[in-house]
Amino acid sequence: MNRPLIIGIMGGGDANENDVQDAYTLGTLIAKQGWVLLNGGRNTGVMAASAKGASDLDGLTIGILPGNTPRHASEHIRIPIVTGIGNARNCINVLSSDVVVACPGGMGTLSEIALALKCRKPVILLNYEKEKRFEPFQQEGLLSYADSPQEAIDGILAFISGKT
Amino acid sequence: MNRPLIIGIMGGGDANENDVQDAYTLGTLIAKQGWVLLNGGRNTGVMAASAKGASDLDGLTIGILPGNTPRHASEHIRIPIVTGIGNARNCINVLSSDVVVACPGGMGTLSEIALALKCRKPVILLNYEKEKRFEPFQQEGLLSYADSPQEAIDGILAFISGKT
Amino acid sequence: MNRPLIIGIMGGGDANENDVQDAYTLGTLIAKQGWVLLNGGRNTGVMAASAKGASDLDGLTIGILPGNTPRHASEHIRIPIVTGIGNARNCINVLSSDVVVACPGGMGTLSEIALALKCRKPVILLNYEKEKRFEPFQQEGLLSYADSPQEAIDGILAFISGKT
Amino acid sequence: MNRPLIIGIMGGGDANENDVQDAYTLGTLIAKQGWVLLNGGRNTGVMAASAKGASDLDGLTIGILPGNTPRHASEHIRIPIVTGIGNARNCINVLSSDVVVACPGGMGTLSEIALALKCRKPVILLNYEKEKRFEPFQQEGLLSYADSPQEAIDGILAFISGKT
Questions:
Q1: Residues of A in contact with C84 (CB under 8 A)
Q2: pTM (2 decimals)?
Q3: Band of residue D162 on the pLDDT scale cut at 50, 70, 90
Q4: Closest Cα partner for C97 from C69, C129, C63, C127?
C-alpha cells in the first residue's frame, strides 16, 4: 500500500478571522492534493476551519483529541483519535504528520513547532514573522515560511521532492 | 457528518495460526460493514492479520503505534498514528474505539481489556474462556463472548442497537 | 548515589475495610525498610491507606496522579507527580517501580498487573486467588502470591536477593 | 503534611560551560531553600548539572525520564520517574512543578516553556533575551527574567509570596 501523505495543521483554538479563512483554504488545498489532514481535532479556531476545508472537498480528516471522548471533536473530523492525555497529545500531532504546517496560535502551537523540530519533522510557518531562533532549522532546510495557503502547499511539495 | 463506527481489534503480536486466521476474517467482516478498523498497528500477529483482512476489502485501517516512526507499521495500515508513548498507547486504542474486540493475546491484550472496561467501552472477547472476574460486566451488558468472527460482528451489532 | 528501592502499590480506589487495613500495614512495612512508596496518588482506597502507612513512619511517598493538578492527591503523598495523561499514567506507575505489589482492585489494578508483567517487572499479588493466566510468570519467578503484608515484604526481599 | 515546593529546571541536554555552571549553582540554591528539584533526569547538560548541585547539598532530586528504564538517569537523581512516553513527558515536567525555571536550551526546552505557560505555571527564564512573544505573560506576572541563579531564586520567592 502506498500511504497518503499526512499533513498536520497546528494553530490557535482562538483565531482571528483572517487566520480562520486561511486555515479553511489550506484545508481545501490539502484535500485537493489527495493528502490526509491531521490536527488537534477540537471544534474551534484553526482546527475546526482546516477540518471543514478538507471535509468540504471530501478529504480525510483525523483529529487527535486531548480529552476522553469524541464529543468535543469538530463535526468535520471524520476519524477522532481519543487520546485522554491532554496536552501530551501535541507530541502525537507532530509525530504522526509527514509535514507540519503551523498557522498563528498561542503557546500550544509554539509547543508543537518546537516538538516538531526536535523530532526532525519539516515545519512550515504560515503567516509568521521570521525568527532568529529558527534560523538554523531554516538553513538546513527543515523549516520554511509561507505567506499564503498556496505557498504552504508549495513548501510541502518542496519538502517532499527534496526527500525523493 | 455521520462518522463511521471505529472497531478496535486487540490481540497478540505473537499469535497462533488459528488466531491469525480469525483476525483476518474479522478484518474482512468489519470492512464489509463499512466500519473503520483500529489496532496497535504493528506488523505482526493479530494486528497485521486484522489490518490485512480489512485492507483486502478496501476498509480504512488505523494503527496506533507505540514507537516514534511509522516504519514498523503493517503495510496494511493506511493511517499510522505515531504516538511515541510506548505501552501507554494502549489507552488510546480503547478510548478511540466505539467497540473493542479482543482476540487471544498476552499481557498487553489483557491490559487493553481491563482499560476498556474501566473506560466503559463495550468489549467482546473472541475465543476466550468465560471468566468470573468479568461476570459483573457481562451482567450489565458491557462485555460479551464470541466463538467466531461472525459472532463478534453480531455482538458489535447488538451493542450498537442497544445504544439506539 | 545508591538509590532507594521504589515499591509500587497498586489497588482499588474503592476498597473494603480489610484491604484498606492491609494497604496501611504494607505502607508502614515499606517505610520501615527504608524503601520509597509509589502509588496512583489519589485520596481514596488502597492509594490513600498505603500512603498514610508509609507517611506515618516518615517514609517517602510518591503519587503518580492522572489529572492536571495535585489538589486531588492524598495528603500523605509527599511528592505528587502530576501527569495529566489519565489512565495512561498506569504505565508510569509500573515502569517507575522496582517491584509492584497489587492489592485487590478493579480493572485499573488489573491493567497495572498486566502492564507490569509485559514490562518484565516483578509482581506480588496480595490477597489474590491463584490464576491460571499468571502461571507462566509464577514459574519463571516474575510473579508471586502473598497472603499478608509481611509476606509481600518477604516476596520483595526474595526478588531483590534473586537479582543480586 | 505541608508539601515541599517543587521547582522544575528545564534546559539543554547539550549545554555550554557557563550554562552548566549556572545550572549547578541553581541546584545548590534550590536545595538550600529546602525545595525539591525536578528535571528531565538524563545524565547530560543542564539536567545532570542541576541535579548534582541539589544533590551535593542533600536536596531531593526527581527526574522525569523519557525512556523505559532508569539506567540513563543522572546518578544525582534520587527518584527516577520512568515514563516511557518520550517527549510527551515534557508535559509532566511542567505540570509537576510549582515554578518552572528555564535555562538556555533547544527545542525541547522551548516546548517546555510553551507548555508551562499554556498550563498557567509561573516561568522564570534564566539568561534569556527578552522576547516580544512572552510580553503578555510578563505583564500579567506569570513570566519573569533572571540574569543569575540567585535572581532566579528571588523570582521564585516573588512568585510564592505573590500567591500568598
A1: 85-88
A2: 0.97
A3: confident
A4: C63
Q: Do D117 and A107 touch (CB under 8 A)?
A: yes
The C-side interface with A (CB below 8 A) comprises 68, 84-88
For residue C46, the SS3 value is helix
| Closest chain C C-alpha to B91 CA, distance in angstroms | 6
Amino acid occupying residue B156: I
C-alpha cell, D78: 534520587
Distance from CA of D94 to the nearest CA of B (A): 18
Report chain D residues touching chain C, CB-CB < 8 A: 1, 3-4, 6, 36, 55, 60, 62, 64, 68, 70, 75-76, 78-85, 88, 91-92, 95-96, 119
**What 3 state SS string does B105-155 have?**
CCHHHHHHHHHHHHCCCCEEEECCCCCHHHHHHHHCCCEEEECCHHHHHHH
Contact indicator for D7, D97 with CB cutoff of 8 Å: yes
Please count the other Cβ atoms lying within 10 Å of the Cβ belonging to residue D116.
28
Q: Which residues of C122-156 are buried (b: 16+ CB within 10 A; e: fewer)?
A: bbbbbbbeeeebbeebeeeebbbbbeebeebbebb
DSSP string, chain C: -PPPPEEEEE--SS--HHHHHHHHHHHHHHHHTTPEEEE--BSSHHHHHHHHHHHHTT--EEEEESSS-GGGB-TT-SEEEE---GGGHHHHHHHT-SEEEEPS--HHHHHHHHHHHHTT--EEEET----GGGHHHHHTTSEEEESSHHHHHHHHHHHHHHH-
Q: What pLDDT score was predicted for residue C80?
A: 98
Give the C-alpha separation, D64 to D8, whole Å: 10
The answer to whether residue A103 scores a pLDDT higher than 60 is yes
Amino acid identity of A112?
Answer: E
Q: What is the pLDDT of residues B8-24, one digit of tens each?
A: 999 989 999 999 999 99
Q: What does the pLDDT average to over D37-66?
A: 98
Nearest to A84 among B81, B82, B95 (CB): B95
Asked whether D88 and D109 are in contact (CB, 8 A), the reply is no
* Averaged pLDDT, C89-109: 98
pLDDT at D120 over 90: yes
Residue C1: band (very low, low, confident or very high) from pLDDT cuts 50, 70, 90: low
**Which chain A residues have a beta carbon less than 8 Å from that of D117?**
107
From the list A87, A107, A119, which residue is nearest D91 (CB)?
A: A87
8 A C-beta contact, residue B82 and residue B68: yes
Over residues D61-69, mean pLDDT: 98
Cell of B47: 494486528
Q: How far is C1 from chain A (nearest CA, A)?
A: 31
pLDDT digits (tens, 9 = 90+) for C9-59: 999 899 999 999 999 999 999 999 999 999 999 999 999 999 999 999 999
Q: What is the rounded average pLDDT for all residues in chain D?
A: 96
> What is the per-residue pLDDT across C130-143, written as a single tens digit (0 to 9) for each?
999 999 999 999 99
The complex's ipTM works out to: 0.96
| Secondary structure class of D68 (helix, strand, coil) | coil
CB atoms within 10 A of CB C120: 11
Burial (0-12, 13-18, 19+ Cβ within 10 Å), B142: middle
- Subunits close to A (at least 3 CB pairs below 8 A): B, C, D
